[in-house]
Amino acid sequence: MQGHDVSLQARARERQRELIEELNHRVKNNLAVIQGIARQTFRSLPGADKASAAFVGRLHAMAAAHEILASQDWEPVALGQLAVKVIGRSSARDEISRITLDGPDVFIPAQMTGSLALILNELATNAVLHGALGREGRVALTWSSDSAGGASRLLFEWVETGCRHAATPVGPAGVGTMLLRNLLPSGAEPPELEFRADGFRYRAAFLIG
Fold first, then answer.
1. Which pairing describes strands 192-196 and 99-102: parallel, antiparallel, or unpaired?
2. Alpha-carbon span 117 to 90, nearest angstrom
3. So which residues are the signal peptide here (predicted)?
4. Using one digit for the tens of pLDDT, what is the confidence trace for 130-168?
């Protein structure tokens, strides 16, 4: 009887692995199709090059999150690992050398990984186009965790320096700003976006378990 139970468990695990592989394959295909449709759609719109690049960049961030999750069977993802992969896709080699990452081993639940990947992509892309990385400045990404009401809370901060022309945007918020404000998990503290004299600062805090 015990041998029979072990056999059933082995078949169940194999079936689960096959289903995960099929899901991964379909997600990757869907992302590729969406990217192709986006490129063709934006190509037909005059002056939409920047919008196309921003949209495809966000898709790449989602793909990076999916690749990590798929490689470790949809288990929680190390924030440092996610940051390196997403920022690496958003920045050139010289720009990456001006980014420092510092924080303990903190793991992000699978269901939050996509949102955090998009936030990291927005921060890195904006730093390249409008902030410190486009003006020979530097970026420090730091994080820590503490306990809030018995649950683990992530404290996450992105600080740009050496960007003398930083200024608070005037007019309606753009898509990137709305993503930075609204992609945090339900119940998160309102994020802080601060445009300072020498650069930009983004701070967020939310529960991760």
1. unpaired
2. 11
3. none
4. 888 888 899 999 999 998 677 899 999 999 998 765 556
